[in-house]
Amino acid sequence: MKNIDELCVNTLRFLAVDAVEKAGSGHPGMPLGAAPMAYVLWDRVMRHNPAGPDWFNRDRFILSAGHGSALLYAILHVYGYGLTLEDLKQFRQWGSKTPGHPEYGRTVGVEATTGPLGQGFGMGVGMAIAERFIANCFNTDKHPVMDHYTYAIVSDGDLMEGVASEAASLAGTLKLGKLIYLYDDNHISIEGGTDIAFTENVRARFVAYGWHVEHVADGNGLDEIESAVKKAQKVEDKPSLIIVRTHIGYASPKQDSPSAHGEPLGKEGVTATKKALDWPIDKSFYVPDNCAAHFKETASSGAGFEEEWNRLFESYKNVYPDLAEDFEHVQSGALPDGWEKNVPVFSGDFAPIATRTASGKVMNSLATALPHFLMGGSGDLAPSTKTILIGYGDFGFEKACAHNLHFGVREHAMAAAVNGIALHGGALPYGATFLVFSDYMRPALRLAALMQTKSIFIFTHDSIGLGEDGPTHQPVEHLMSLRAIPGLTVIRPADANETAVAWKIAVSRKGPVCLALSRQKLAVLNPELYPVFTGVMQGAYILADSKSDVPEIVLIATGSEVGLALKAQTELESRGVSARVVSMPSWEIFEEQTVEYKNSVLPTDVPRLAIEAGSTLGWWKYVGSGGGVIGLDRFGASAPGKVALEKLGFTVENVVKQALKLVEDRR
Question: Is the pTM of this model over 0.90?
Answer without folding.
Answer: yes
